[in-house]
Design brief:
single chain, alpha/beta, 17 helices, 12 strands, binds pyridoxal-5'-phosphate
């Protein structure tokens, strides 16, 4: 909830993206602070019982309780909505809170949901395990295969969920084609845009209805706090998401919202520098001895390179590759790294490496992993903002070990 300020809102909407990132959503208190204020407040006081009554009835503007809304959280929501070109936004405590709230706001027992198969592990758990517990039928398809979408979508399908690029294989899904197919059967499309970041891809331009983020990743980008966001139309946010959100409590902490607001100010600069380093690392790895495959949407060898170039402003900050020799070789490689650290986080200024088969995707059966294209020799690097020569040197020395 952003306090009404129409002049300010009209000015903000004319700004270009970088200006929106630095200034969008800023609402100064009477003290005139330069930086956005941190309203570390759980509740609010009313000047009279009539004011309290009017706010609870929704007849007067103003905050009630920070589970419902908070001024610092509202600044973050407004800034992200401006960047994304969305009507409205709700901040959430984590990316998973955003995914879960968005889906739960859409479905009821008896509904049907179609999802891409290559998903972040916890997103896969929600679609495969949690939704069916509440009587929602779900089907997975290979995201890039439009025939599978056509076959799975049926009249009355309530929601489509997808991630592009996907984790960790960096598959690209044709957003416009899938949104068009989904809309012909009346389904709403929820896009998890974490890997693309809000600066590289705007799913609403291709017809998406709802966009979700883990702000923990590139939006913070400095390994400090968890957060997330759901973006969509005013009707969806107010009438469907808000009743679920208010009463179940996935609210974003004002402190984390403040950190994330400051993260947004440098987001496009950081993402551009991450992408530049990631291109160099992908080129460096491709064709090297002992590496069977490099997956990076910016490489001409990527199966959906042309689609990635059309749909995204740049190819992203993650590079995945496959080492000859399976898990033993992958573990030996990870242990030989001296600069790049082992962590499942991503989008951080520090370069981080993970072995998806034994971490983010270890809960799946070997067959499910194979279905997602995740092999035991697969390694995912979140390319950081160090000098790229130091990243290359570390990879080269670790590849030479053993
Ligand atoms: C990390 C991640 C999430 C979950 O976000 P949290 O902030 O960790 O809850 C969801 N989707 C994708 C693609 C992610 O990378």
């Amino acid at each position: 909830m952003v306090t009404k300020n129409s002049d300010q809102e009209r000015r903000e909407e004319k700004w270009r993206p970088q200006t929106r990132l630095v200034r969008g959503g800023t609402r100064r208190s009477s003290f005139g602070e330069t930086s956005e204020a941190l309203f570390l407040a759980s509740g609010y006081v009313y000047d009279s019982p009539e004011t309290a009554e009017a706010r609870f009835k929704g007849e007067a503007e103003g905050y009630i309780y920070s589970r419902y809304g908070n001024p610092t959280v509202a600044m973050f929501e407004r800034r992200l909505a401006l960047l994304e070109g969305a009507d409205d936004c709700r901040g959430t405590a984590s990316g998973m809170a955003a995914v879960f709230a968005a889906l739960m706001a859409l479905v009821r027992a008896g509904d049907y949901v179609v999802s891409s198969r290559a998903l972040f592990g916890s997103c896969q758990f929600i679609v495969a395990e949690i939704l069916p517990r509440f009587g929602v039928e779900t089907t997975f398809v290979d995201g890039p295969d439009l025939d599978q979408w056509r076959a799975a979508l049926r009249p009355g399908t309530k929601a489509v969920f997808l991630e592009s690029p996907s984790n960790p294989t960096l598959e690209i899904i044709d957003l416009k084609a899938v949104c068009d197919l989904a809309h012909t059967v009346g389904a709403r499309v929820v896009v998890d845009n974490v890997f693309a970041t809000p600066v590289l891809q705007h799913p609403f331009d291709f017809g998406a209805d709802i966009v979700v983020y883990s702000a923990t990743k590139h939006i913070d980008g400095q390994g400090r706090c968890l957060g997330g966001a759901v973006l969509g139309s005013k009707e969806f946010i107010n009438e469907e998401l808000t009743p679920f959100y208010r009463h179940t409590g996935p609210s974003l902490s004002p402190f984390n919202a403040w950190v994330l607001l400051k993260g947004l100010e440098t987001l496009d600069l950081r993402v551009a520098a991450h992408c530049s380093n990631a291109h160099i690392i992908a080129d460096f790895l491709e064709g090297r001895n002992g590496i069977t495959r490099v997956l990076y949407p910016g490489l001409p060898s990527h199966p959906q390179h042309a689609l990635a170039s059309a749909q995204m402003k740049d190819a992203g900050t993650l590079v995945t590759f496959e080492l000859e020799g399976g898990k033993d070789r992958a573990f030996q490689f990870l242990k030989s790294l001296k600069l790049i650290e082992i962590s499942n986080n991503l989008g951080d200024t520090k370069s981080l490496v993970t072995h998806p088969a034994t971490t983010t995707h270890q809960r799946l059966t070997p067959e499910e992993r194979a279905g997602m294209g995740i092999s035991d020799g697969m390694v995912r690097i979140s390319v950081g903002l160090e000098d790229v020569e130091d990243i290359k040197e570390d990879l080269a020395q670790a590849l030479a070990c053993g």
